[in-house]
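haha ok so turns out i had the wrong file open the whole time. this is the CORRECT one, sorry everyone. sequence first:
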Amino acid sequence: MTGADDLRRAPLLVDLDRLLHDLRGPLNAAVMHLEVLKRLQSEDPATRASLQSIHQELERLTAMLPLAFAVCALEMGTPRRLLLRGVVESAIDEGTRKRVRVDPGPWPEVEGDERLLVLAVRQLIVNALEAASDESEVRVAVERTEADAVAVAIHDAGSGFKTRNPNAVVRLMGSTKGGHLGIGLLVAQRIARLHGGRLTFETAADGGGVVRLVLAGRPS
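then structure:
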C-alpha cells in the first residue's frame, strides 16, 4: 500500500530536488531561532502559547514540503491501452479485498500509465475504506460521462462530503484522522490531471461519499 513513506523514497526531479534543498535552509534557520526564543522562558502565557504554535506550524511545514514536492514529481509514462477492470483489480489490496465489491461492468478500455492509474485507484479505495466502519463495504463502479469519458466511481458508507469543491476537499495533510497525512486524494488528483482527467466529489442519497476518477475513454 503506497503512502507517505513511498513518496519520500521516490526520486524527485532535479529542479524540484534543488528547490527543496534551498527551502530547507531558511526553514531550519527559523526553527533554530525559535528555540533560542523559547529558552528565554518568557513569563507571559500568551507569548509562550504563540511560540509553541509557531513551533508546531514549522514542524508541519517541514513535513509538508517533501510530500508536496514528491506529488509534483509524479510523471506520466508512455500511455498504452488498458483494461480499466484490470486496473481496478490490481489496485485492491488483498487484505481488504473482502470489503471491496467491483461491479460487473462492462468495463471499457482507456489509454494511460498503468502504474499511476493503479496508484490513484488504490488511494481512492483506501480513503473510502477509512471513511466508515471496519464492517462497511466499498463499491467500485464504472460510469459513462460526457463524450468519450469514463469514470471509476468509488462509493463508501461514510458521512459524505460537505462540499463538491475539489479545492476544499483535496488538501495536503488535510486529514482529520490521527496518524494520517491526508495525501491520498492529492496523489489521485495529480494522476487524474496527468491523464487529462479530474476528481469529482458528491454525497450520495444514502449519505455515503462518492469519488469519481474521470478519464478520457477510448472511442467505441
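The chain has two domains: 4-72, 80-216.
again sry for the mixup
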